[in-house]
Amino acid sequence: LQREMVVAFMEEKMPYSPHGISAAVDALKLQLHMMNAPERHLIGFRNGVFDLKIGRFRPHHKHDWLLLANDVEFNSPVSGETLQSRAPQFWHWLNRATAHCENKAERVLAALFMVLANRYDWQLFLEVTGAGGSGKSIF
């Protein structure tokens, strides 16, 4: 913002100083609305927001105050769709990382849900151990 302020001063051929630029930027910041804390039950996507409280996808609203969003398009599930058919590379990694153990795979999926859905209230931490090259870093 300070660089843009310098450009504005230069375009108007007005003298400026580093202190003057900082003061002008600080004055502009005072005009901005205070940002609220983002709601933890919202997951941002490129094309909208998924609201975990109501289980629905909707358009973005500026009052959501999201600081970031996944650079992924949200698509509603199709009847009969499975993770295996929709995300075969992920499914392959999941099976390889869990040695084709369904119980382990369910735990990994639960951990991913915990992270994606901001379930900090579960008061859990994840410890991922295993042999080198087993997919821990990818996870």
Automatic annotation (TrEMBL):
InterPro entries in UniProt: Phage/plasmid_primase_P4_C
Domain Bacteriophage/plasmid primase P4 C-terminal: 16-97
Top-level taxon in the UniProt lineage: Bacteria
Pfam (any one): D5_N
Protein name stated in the entry: DNA primase
